[in-house]
Write a structure and sequence with these properties.
Helices cover 36% and strands 17% of the residues. It contains 12 helices and 13 strands. Helix 5 packs across helix 10.
Length: 368
């Protein structure tokens, strides 16, 4: 079975910049290893900042279709390339965007977020046959607009690299100077106002009143994600100004975006991970990444977060800054981390999830 994957972003090997990118790469690899009859072909916009995967077929010659202005010639050339791949495919798999040209081939849309307009628009565009969502929360949001027989639920997975990694903190030196005496509070999110940066800084401010060993880690914008670059840079600038106004320069560490392969040790050194988004989160891969290496998470429980990992053991909901300070001050060793770690590793198993996708691909091909 030949599956064409249509992406709206460059598909890099290492410097991944969001949940969708992280989720897709090793899912493809696992499916290819499980079923030799499945062949994937990715077509995506061009990008020259980082290397592309060598074991996945990627054509990165498209011009980014989400630029403000494209000439008719560019659009024609893009569509001509897509048509060539469409003709050779048995099935088209689209990630958060519908296929821009007409096709009678079976089409599967994976809807991974409800936070942005373009993703929401794909629900109402007709150029798909089946839709996959990550959680029951998302299913409930879209079921009034989608035939239930066209809707499937398949979650994200715990990447095996988080289950077996070398606990070598020296790899962190390329991002910041790691000090085992500090208690690191992690905030592994892009600079979006709705992600809660200011609240995280306010939590730190309260923590250090009683314990000056706390440090807050904040990543700079991911360079691989060439979307909203100016906005994200401006957001980081405002965050730095706020840190300065609170006289917290010695306690907040800004560092470059962590390469995916280094994320396990990054999460591992955390005392707690803050997930302070107020967006309708459709899954929350940060929950799995953090808990799978033994670092508890604090969140507002918005969207699907409490569905993905129920609260009480290593996932805690808060309403106020004081709630967060109280939880963190008790220390991570007071949490039942092992219980939730076992839970996420068993429920979000990569082999099982890739098998669910393989079965859905086969079902869709047969029905069409």
């Amino acid at each position: 079975m030949k599956i064409l994957i249509y992406l709206y972003y460059p598909f890099y090997e290492k410097h991944l910049a969001g949940g969708v990118q992280v989720w897709l790469k090793n899912l493809i690899r696992n499916m290819q290893s499980k079923n030799k009859n499945i062949k994937f072909q990715i077509v995506c916009p061009t990008g020259t900042m980082y290397e592309y995967p060598k074991d996945i077929s990627v054509d990165h010659s498209l011009v980014d279709m989400e630029q403000d202005f494209l000439t008719p010639k560019i659009i024609y050339e893009n569509f001509s390339k897509l048509k060539k791949y469409e003709e050779n495919a048995d099935l088209i798999w689209m990630i958060d965007r519908t296929f821009p040209i007409n096709s009678k081939k079976p089409k599967l849309l994976s809807l991974n977020t409800l936070c942005y307009e373009r993703e929401l628009m794909s629900i109402f565009q007709s150029n798909w046959d089946k839709m996959v969502v990550l959680t029951d929360f998302v299913k409930r949001q879209v079921e009034d607009y989608v035939n239930k027989f066209e809707l499937y639920e398949i979650p994200c997975y715990v990447d095996p690299i988080f289950l077996n990694f070398e606990k070598n903190t020296k790899v962190l030196d390329k991002y910041f100077k790691y000090n085992p005496k500090y208690k690191y509070i992690l905030f592994p999110h892009r600079p979006d106002p709705a992600k809660g940066h200011i609240t995280a800084i306010d939590i730190l401010k309260e923590l250090i009143k009683n314990d000056s060993s706390y440090r807050l880690l904040i990543p700079l914008p991911p360079l691989a994600k060439q979307i909203n670059v100016d906005r994200e840079n401006e957001s980081i600038l405002q965050i730095k100004k706020y840190v300065s106004s609170q006289k917290l320069e010695d306690y907040v560490i800004f560092h470059k975006w962590i390469d995916y392969e280094d994320l396990p040790i990054y999460y591992y050194i955390g005392e707690y991970t803050l997930f302070l988004s107020k967006l309708p989160e459709t899954f929350g891969l940060t929950l799995l990444n953090s808990i799978s290496v033994g670092t508890p998470v604090i969140s507002y429980g918005v969207g699907a977060l409490n569905e993905v990992v129920p609260t009480g053991n290593a996932h805690f909901n808060i309403n106020t800054i004081e709630d967060a300070v109280k939880i963190i001050s008790k220390g991570k060793n007071k949490c039942n981390i092992k219980g939730d770690k076992n839970y996420v590793c068993e429920k979000y198993n990569l082999n099982n999830i890739s098998q669910s996708y393989i079965e859905l691909f086969e079902k869709l091909k047969e029905e069409k």
